[in-house]
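Board notes (copied after class):
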Amino acid sequence: MKKVTNIYWRILIMAMCIIASGCSSLKPWLKPYERQNLADPIMAFSRAPISDNYFHHVFQAREGSRGAEGSAGGGCGCN
């Protein structure tokens, strides 16, 4: 029985060490001067974002649901 509790204590101590190592200081993945590259239009998912927004709006009005595509607007169709 003592051997089993000894294993549990070791597992508990190892888990606490792993959790405590997550509290170290994190540095951002991107530097502020590198963020301009992500804002470049070439990084967009779509080639025609305006027409995609229109098709998402039509789809939402036809289906009676919204929110899955990330577009903004109300459900009344008056946007």
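Comment from the instructor: The chain has three helices and no strands. The chain has a mean pLDDT of 74.
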